[in-house]
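User: Could you check the structure of this?
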Amino acid sequence: MMGPEPQTLPPSPNWYCTRCSDAVPGGLFGFAARTSVFLVRVGPGAGTIPGTPPFRVVGELVGHTERVSGFTFSHHPGQYNLCASSSDDGTVKIWDVETKTVVTEHALHQHTISALHWSPQVKDLIVSGDEKGVIFCYWINRNDSQRLFIEPRTIFCLTCSPHDEDLVAIGYKDGMVVIIDISKKGEVTHRLRGHDDEIHSIAWCPLPGEDCLSINQEENSEPEIANGKVTAQTPEAKGCYLATGSKDQTIRIWSCARGRGVLVLKIPFLKRRGGGVDPTVKERLWLTLYWPKNQPTQLVSSCFGGELLLWDLTQSWRRKYTLFSASEGQNHSRIVFNLCPLQTEDDKQLLLSTSMDRDVKCWDMTTLDCCWTLPSLGGFVYSLAFSPEDTGYLAIGVGDGMIRVWNTSSKKNSYDVKSFWQGVKSKVTALCWHPKKEHCLAFGTDDGKVGLYDTYSSKPPQISSTYHKKTVYTLAWGPPVPPMSLGGEGDRPSFTLYSCGGEGIVFQHNPWKFGGEASDINRLIRDTNALKYKLPVHTEISWKADGKFMALGNEDGSIEIFQGPSLKLMCSIQQHHKLLNTISWHHEHGSQPELSYLLASGSNNAVIYVHDLRTVLESEPESPVTITEPFRTLSGHTSKITCLAWSLHHDGILVSASYDGTAQVWDTLREQPLHNFRGHRGRLLCVVWSPLEPDCIYSGADDFCVYRWLPATQDHSRPPQGKKSIELEKKRLSQPKPKPKKKKKPTSQMPIKQESFEGHEEDSTKENTGPVENGLSDQEGEEEGPPALTPTVPREPVMCTPTSSSCEKSDVTVNNKIAVLKKEPPKEKPEALMKRRKVRSMLPLSTSLDHRSKEELHHDCLVLATAKHSKELNEDVSADLEERFHLGLFSDRDTLYRMIETEGKGHLENGHPELFHQLMLWKGDLQGVLQTAAERGELTDSLVAMAPVAGYRVWLWAVEAFAKQLCFQDQYVKAASHLLSIHKVYEAVELLRSNHFYREAIAVAKARLRPEDPVLKELYLSWGTVLERDGHYAAAAKCYLGATSPYDAAKVLAKKGDAASLRTAAELASIAGENKLAASLALRCAQELLLTKNWVATQEALQLHESLQDQRLVFCLLELLCWQLEARQLPEARSSSSSYHSWATDTKGPFLQRVTSAWTSIFGLDGPAQCQAALQRLQDIKYPSATSNTPYRQLLLHICHDLTLAVLSQQTASWEEAVRALLQAVLRSYDSGNFTIMQEVYSAFLPDGCDHLSDKLGDCQSSATSALRSLEAFSTYGRLYEIWWSLSRPCPEPSVSVTTEHGKTLSTVQSQRVDGASAEETGSEVCRPEPGSPPELSLRLSEESARVLSTCRALFSEEHASLQNARRTVAQVQETLAEMIHQHQKSRLCKATASGPHNNEPEQETEPRLAGPQSQCNSKEEENEPVSLPELTRRLTEANQKIAKFPESIKAWPFPDVLESCLVLLHIGSQCPGCVPQEVQQQAQELLRKYGSGRAYERHCQTFCT
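Assistant: Sure, the predicted structure tokens are below.
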């Protein structure tokens, strides 16, 4: 027996079970957790320290092999010690809690058990139900059972009546509730319909009869609920209320007398009161109930967020409830699964609740306050760490994604535990407190994350920006090393955080800049020690307390000691030869200071070594020393060592944790085992010595438990050996034997370390696989992801207490991957035996007949002699020979054949066809053998190999038959090889192709068929299609090239659309001579590179094809223009990623000159002839017109195309073409609303205006003249706006230099266009500053601006104003007509779907919208009714006729909006009086009066024209 029960932090109660906890009077509470039931003594009997909560975990019921789904006590006085549990392993066990043993059990259920209850009326009756709807009543005392099948539905819960021993209420998954009478073979007395989702809880009213509640008067308040056929009223069912809680968010109270619902309580949504809940977790509702025995007018229920409600049923029509515990933080923070009443020895009425927040809470039913909380764990306990500053605070890293901090020194609460989950989101595998800073806790997780928590704050943790690729094994605080140690004292932290991950790298994180990049210390080690060889894979790190030396443990078992801060290698310990799991330096404050140089280490083998490094480290050797002898060796564990911790209170006392399921305390100086703790039921993962109590240790394991235990009270002094070790492993015996293990090949260089990263993730995953709806147990955290890593090192067996089973399932999983050290030598015995085993006899029947009695053998001799020497055989001898077939060996051939036949049949019957085949071969009947084997699907390679003996045809037939057989066995490649052996190449290729072995099929076809064979091309194409469909474009391209389809290859490569793919595709097409495709792909590539402004690569891409020489000119101009635009921007707005050519950044000379000189020098464009040819080729390319949504890069490219045409036209003196191309570029920028580019075009190409173009064109009246007029007008229009903007800014600048503002201004004032102008005419926007600026602004106008204002008369063209007005009218009429049609359709739709006032609503809504366009036609009609259709038609006709009269020269080219220009000019005049000539102002006003009739211009007309 063990000493006193250790203090336990237990596993979490299982989730989603309708009854998996229960309590009995006197103060014993039990809850199911994983595969066990934990027992808690509550009240005075717990024997706790006065002042602390009166409860204690007193034991565990161990025996189930899978999740426990139900638990119930016997509530009969005198047998409170009996309880029952049901499990996913299919059993119901009855236990005696005093001895913690199974009294009896049954395995009657064939399906998952989902509900269980011990009858409160019948002492020995236990009722259970399963997911298929089967119920078993089991009477313990008479070991009798009854099977009932009521409904083929999933049972969710069942509760036996407390008043009638025959009644059981059953709740189903679909919301049905039935009451059955088990004395009448499960006859249904009531079907209660009303719920429409899972029934989570059923509670009978504690008082019989229906007088206790005043809900009779409500009989009519609830609608009658159909109940099917209600049986005749039995005296027993006279009356009792029944309450049910369902996932449908309602509690229903039913009358059994009336067989119907009498009251529905809807669960209220309550505002959350502070609990720490992960907002990303969307919870389902679980609605559990408790009907207090002494208070039948009250009902307790759970709620959405974990709150508990006390419903008052006396005034049920008011739906009144009271909330448990008004104080902050006392409630559960997530849904509650079970409620159990408990009466203590001192008659306190308590209520115990289990919840998804992993807390068990105890409530006082008189005050509704929370008395105490028992925290629990939902995953493996990976790490334990005591804070050096906040003494007594123990941090626990758990596999459920939460960190617990347990204040073990609390005097008021022995379970003062705080949980931290924010930012964790994965298994917590490593913890380490800051050595000097309070509340600062570093954590590492299974997914490679490293974080820092302030445990006194509620803030989320800081997370390092550097992640490990695999699990974080260890964390350690230590002094900074380069690069972080560089800098002054105040510039760097005194401690940095070191983390070691599963990929074998140690990172150094700066806690001051946690978001910055961590440094890999391998670089420093390599540089300092000038190492040439590959560094080992690290698995563990530990700094000596004084910060002078760092120890690194490695995958190969070596330990390296480095001197800080340069990390000079001092020595290497070559002792362990398996992966290093744990290293621990002795503390510094012992009576013997020299002990601080002791280093203890544990690895994947079971021996612990302690090294004394004092001599080596104090002598500071020149070159690294190699140590191969330990100072002390501690042997005794039988499995890997996972954790080591020195006692802070003693000298040289060490505690170790091992996979053998025990923790061992050692006196290292004497190499003596002192105490062995065997309380865990799994593999130990961590252990730590209490800093407060000299004789107190905490340990954690993969059994989801933390135990606090006292070494001195342990019954054992050393780990279990021999038989004891086998006993601890007893639970393995019930498991299927693991498959024979092959020797592991090292799959990677990555180390796998410790429990956390080996078998045990599979452990919890396997062991808790319950159906989801009925309950993932609390292991959710462990089950969320797959196993962290695949082990690459042999692992030890799990050792556990005799009755244990928590890891049973896992052991299968683990063992499949484990090489058990102790059993390795015997493993070879079976193989040796097999080698020596006698070969099976070919003639077993004959042999056995030769071993009969002497008489029989003598008779054999006589029969044989008679047969050999008689001339004629009589019937008796023939019969004897037939019976004694084994004599065929000695008589004639016929008898031998008979013998062979008999022996062959025997082999077939015994399942040895291969021996039968051999006998037939001996007989010479090879064809028969082959035929039989083919029919039975038993052909083998050796049989087919012998087939040629029977002839060529037989061989061909046998090979084909074998190929068919192999196909049935999915061995297609082998089948194809056999077909090839008989030269059936096409069939072999087709077989491989049809089964998607394209690679093999092509290899065969290529090797065996003619190169021009069409089959080969088909293979390539079909494989290419499959690869293309799956997104493997490069591989598909290779297939198409193989099929000599380079075009397809280039197309498929280009599919991805990135620059690199496009470039490769273009090169491929170019090589294959697909010139058009190559050119288009190269151009696409160049356009793709435009986005990144990689001009160098762009020109390289265009170089790929000679036909793109002209495009190179366009891109050259584009590059120069972009450089110019960027040069005008503020430095911070410039793109840092762009790469320009050197010639683009040279800004000497006018822009046009830079373009032409670049063309000449870089692209060899020399002479008019070349320019003419390039111009003609580029003119063939047409781009669509721009809109305000045209992407900026695309717009620039199109504008530069037009500008290139203009420059080439100028080079060839084609001035008309030049004007048109320039105007086209300006119009693109105008249409897209990009004022900046428009002004840039003018400043770069027409810095001195359009006069020189006018001179070049001469007097000839061509279409170019009107184009030039438009070009001049847009130039003036742009200048007008610049003048206006310069006036409205406090510090005006020269006109052109304000252009950088325009883009911004335009985008913000887009909505402020001068209303009424059509899109075509008002591509640019009007920005109207407030009039009435100070008069001194008039001084600011430059001469240039004054000149512009005096010449802007060209803008005020009467013809264009009239044309634009007519076009506006057409646009407005068309808009009105479209609106009318829309209205008509809408009103018809409304009439079809509704009647009454709804019909008018759409019309009323849209009337104002109609008025808008109409009033623009004629402002006088604004107030009037909508215009009639004939009137609109008339206006449209008039406007179209007017437009037709204008000459083509005016209509051909767009012109700036005349009225908009008039308004801008008048604004300038009002802001700067005297600067605009009077006649120009008058002309503008006149145009506004004449054509500004629309509502958009009306207000402005009143301002400027009155």
